[in-house]
Amino acid sequence: MKVTLENLTKIFPSRSKKEGKDVVAVNSFNIEIADGQLVGLLGPSGCGKSTMLNLLSGLQKPTSGKILFDDDDVTTLPPENRGVGLVFQSYALYPHLTVRQNITFPLENRKGKDKLTKDEMNAMALEAAKLVQIDNLMDRKPGELSGGQQQRVAIARAIVKKPRILLLDEPLSNLDARLRLQTREEIRRIQRSTGITTVFVTHDQEEAMSISDSIIVMKDGILQQVGKPQEVYDEPVNLFVAKFLGTPPINTFDGFVKDGGLYIGEEKVLDVPHAENCAVTVAVRPEGFEINPHGAFSCHVDRVEVMGRDVSIVSTHECSHNPLVRSIISSENAQEVTGEWVKFDLKKNKTYIFNKETEERIFF
Ligand code: ADP
Ligand code: MG
Description:
The protein is α+β, with helices and mostly antiparallel strands. The protein contains 9 helices and 21 strands. Helix 2 crosses helix 3 and helix 2 packs parallel to helix 4 (147-159). The chain is elongated and about 80 Å long. The model has no long low-confidence stretch (mean pLDDT 94). Bound molecules: adenosine-5'-diphosphate and magnesium ion (MG).
């Protein structure tokens, strides 16, 4: 099912004069999520991700704007009539019920012609449980399960009703690192096999990038960029997006454009014939540095960290915004780093410049 948001806005009024301004948790969002996609909704804590999911599920009403599921306007529809499956960070399972009873719970209160028999409910629960591979645990109570298993029960409970859309709010945050990795792949697999349009909320860019068909990056309630993970990584529209994606993070420097040249400090590091003279922030991905004894950009070597196939040259530069500049170089090329200084060329497709004031991308 396709999901369309039109000028969707949610404002939380301030409770008192002392509290100050209203909070615009979601600010005029316009977006279309294609049928069957897994979309990663990504942004720092407090940017409005949970509010967005609550609007989609119907748990909260928007201040203005519209939500369409295919061509149905669901903006004022109560949650139970929207056909959404919800999974939260806290699994919210019923501790006194078995796995089977937890999964059938959303099916119990169907009335009239939709009413299901016990056998029908159990069959549906088993099908959902098989999909998340917990069908051997049906008689256990949540307290007898690991965190990862509990989260699978929560997912089974969300998909047992065959929802039109699946919404997951930071579903992996309570799991340890190894389980997080495993479970995120599991979610991808379940999503592929059911084909349910899914919105997956996370503040972890790596998590979003690794499993999403497309990502939506938001900040302070405002949509920043939408696209395939690689496209957004390669072509960030502003400094915020450039900094939010990538590990190690992008390196940023004070710089300026003068007469078609990009300067960091005294050094002219790139030709930028189409950019106008102005003060800029220069951002370089760690993989954007190339060692060259005659390179244009000189950094002071702090240390060389061996990472196996690659090495990370950790250096300093007086124009850097961060204490350390991190470059990633293939280990053969790093042999040349012996002295106190290292010289780099900057790769044009891994270097970005942003207006110093607006932080918008400047194309060169
Ligand atoms: P995220 O999930 O990205 O961390 P939230 O959607 O929870 O962000 O919150 C977005 C903003 O809206 C925050 O500033 C938060 O304090 C505010 N907010 C969320 N829910 C409420 C509420 N019920 N009442 C008032 N403010 C809220
Ligand atoms: Mg949240």
